[in-house]
Amino acid sequence: MTAPARNREPLPGIGDEIAGLEAAIINALGIPWQMGRRGHIRCPLPGHDDRRPSFRLTERGYICSCGHGDYVALTMAMLGVPFADAAAWLRETLGLRPDAAGLDPAEAEARRQWLAEQRAKAKAEAAKRDAEEAAEAKCKAARARELWRSAVPIAGTLAETYLRGRAIEGPYPPSLRYLAGHRQPYTGLVLPCMVAAVQAPDGAIVGVQRTWLAPDGNGKARLRDPRLPLGDFRACAVRLGPIDGTGWGVCEGTETGLSVQRLFGISGIWCALGTGNMPNIEPPAHVDVVTIFADNGPPGQQWAAKAAEALHEKGRAVMTRKPPAPFGDFNSLAQERAKP
Hints:
The protein is α+β, with helices and mostly antiparallel strands. Among the domains are: 14-122; 237-340, Dna Topoisomerase Vi A Subunit, Chain: A, domain 2 (3-Layer(aba) Sandwich), CATH 3.40.1360.10. The chain has helices spanning 14-17, 22-29, 71-79, 83-94, 105-150, 158-165, 254-264, 298-313, 330-338; strands spanning 56-57, 62-64, 67-69, 152-153, 176-183, 190-199, 205-212, 227-231, 238-239, 248-251, 268-271, 289-293, 317-321. The strands form 3 sheets. A 5-stranded antiparallel β-sheet has the order 4-5-6-7-8, covered by helices on one side. Strands 9-11-10-12-13 form a 5-stranded mixed β-sheet, sandwiched between helices. β6 (190-199) and β7 form a beta hairpin.
């Protein structure tokens, strides 16, 4: 299903009125979610039967494989009503305007007090979550740097075997390394692993992307999650080479990025490690032009368009390239071209 687009018109007070009342809205809509929880649940929106849980909520609104929006948009989607009706429902259900609800003075004051308490509670809980998340991010970044220091260059390792099997010949960038044995947290299996350094806008390593490999290096390990992040990736990227006269490019994954380097002769390729992170990438100050190497298919094209819009807003000229059909990404194209 397609979620309703965010209303572009100025909200007639409802956005400010519901601030801090997210938990009450979630409860009123009957969504089994508690603010601050991790992970995803099955999408509750009518018409979206996601086989794998893809729905989550934040202070700003909902995010799902079917779309995203604020809490007014969520109410519209859940109730199947237009904006004005959703706003009216929120005001009535939450008692947002006690003075206009026909309540006696004591009831109106009690409602105002309840609203104030809910907002204060939400603010305190959000501050607590922010502090906990900051501490956790710091701990994960430290673990990622420790893991990175323990890894070795990939030349002559099973990671090189893996990349050659993906039609990616050396030499390989120093931002990729190899671990002969690394434990996959969900299964406990210790397997060979390719490790990619994730760098923040200032160049500091703040995370790693781990790709577990088959015991002989021929392909990824046969796991449900053969690739997992460690650290905070927002606005960060794997930098596959220095930005020189060949230009700067942004793509989704490391294999795609390595293939783009070889297909187009561009050194400075940054990999966002997820199409959803592409719009968050901070362009280097000295770069005026960027090429987005998009994956084919609706998700890849949609996120590439959002990334282009974000980079335009940051004052960059943007060109977007995608592989010819039927190839899903540039690594698929490289593998086809490598066939004898």
